[in-house]
Amino acid sequence: MIAPDEIRNKIQAALPGSAVTVRDMTGGGDHYEVEVVSQAFAGMSAIQRHRMVYTPLKDVLGAALHALALKTRTPDEVTPADQEETP
After folding, report:
1. Residue 24: φ, ψ to 5°
2. Where are the domains of the chain?
3. Which burial class, exposed, middle or buried, applies to 40 when counting CB atoms under 10 A from its CB (0-12, 13-18, 19+)?
4. CATH number of 4-33+42-85
5. Contact partners, residue 86, CB within 8 Å, separation at least 6
6. pLDDT score for 77
7. Residue 83: pLDDT band with limits 50, 70, 90
8. Is residue 85 over pLDDT 70?
9. Which residues fall within 8 angstroms of residue 78, CB to CB, at 6 or more apart?
């Protein structure tokens, strides 16, 4: 099991200035949905963006963190409707 704050902190340490939202999908602490908004993603493919997020989590992936659903965007890709969805 891994806490949402630990996931958020690892990603933010690797991508300073990013906005990271973490949601436990099952309540079990091992399946998470993560949204990362970072200017660092500008000009990158989805695969490159996901690799940037997976890298700081490599020590917990497959162990404490079993499943990760990612959404990665730049600030320019966030729409007003997306901001209304964020709690």
Report:
1. -75, 120
2. 4-33+42-85
3. middle
4. 3.30.300.90
5. 21
6. 92
7. low
8. no
9. 37
Q: Which residue has the tokens 């436990």?
A: 24
User: Does the structure show a pLDDT above 80 at 80?
Assistant: no
**Residues 54, 59, 65, 66: is their CA dihedral positive or negative?**
positive
CA atoms within a 13 Å half-sphere pointing along the CA-CB vector of 14: 19
Which amino acid belongs to residue 19? A
Question: Which tokens sit at 65?
Answer: 């963190």
E-assigned strand segments in the chain: 19-24, 31-37, 67-73
